[in-house]
Amino acid sequence: MNIFNRYFWQETSFSILMIMLGLLAMFSFFDLIQELDSLGRGNYGINNMLVFVLLSVPGHIYEVVPVAVLLGMMYSLGTLGGNSELIVMRVSGLSLQQIGYALIKIGLLFTVITFLVGELIAPISEKMAQRMRIKATDSVVAQDFKSGLWIKDGKSFVNVETVLPDATLLNVHIYEFDEKFRLRSISNAKQGSYRDDKWGLKEVTQTQFNYQKKLEENSVQTAFFDKANWKSLIRPELLNVLLVLPEKMSAWNLYSFIQHLSRNNQKTTRYEVALWAKMTYPLACVVMVILALPFGFLQQRAGGTSTKIFIGILLGVLYQIMNRVFVHLGVLNDWSPMVSAITPTLLFLAAGLAMIVWIEHR
Question: How many CB atoms lie within 10 A of CB 103?
Fold first, then answer.
């Protein structure tokens, strides 16, 4: 069996890697075309553009590995089937299950690669790419409102007009409320930077509202500080969500951000779906192996290798589309995050197993 394992590895891994390189070249070319619009803005030159495209490659690797596994497996198994090698293996006593186990081991290897790239490399490279691009084009981190970023922090609401790529905050406004939801203080700072588990604020103007039992005894006090410390649940890591899409964040950062939102009673559905997708997406490599296996045993009259490759491309595109659709439907309809993330993979797994059973009993 070890001989068959080595043979399958030699026949499939080269095809998978070549297809992966082709897909990466295509996506990098599209990135290059898209970045041409930003060329010349600020200090954003050719070198910056090429570095940005290069730093975007790990994120594309994470996305294309399952599709490359599917196409590579279908091509290799189609070639083996066309040469009747798979039939000879079965006649020699090798069962369909044994062939499947040998190929699944290859799928597991690419599952590990996908997980490691998605967790350790892609989030860092994506963040570096966005920071470099924002700094070179003299831009700021994109925000949802014209007034800047709004964050709930315990009993306070924080408004940050500008977030720089190094997580420095400019024009920070902190609105603190008491247990009765009355405004207790307003703090305005020109700048904030995180150090030693706290935010250091500069040029702070603080207005405090003192409420008494009698209305006429209420008072307002204003004070100015050159420097002040601000203890907050907000961490620079949580601001990574402004630089990196949830789907490209690491599972740990997603979990931390979900915890922060939960503590502040904010909606977490989108980030929970992204977290579950991060945990289940690498397993798609194994599912793609199972889906590709039956195509090696189809007769040549049912379609040549080129036809099978075309079908593989359609299946790969369909899988990516279904992943995106189910994520958005889950967020819009408040479906279970686990169901939204894992349903496309389970559907493809069921289709692959059904085809294997059909091939086995044909």
Answer: 24
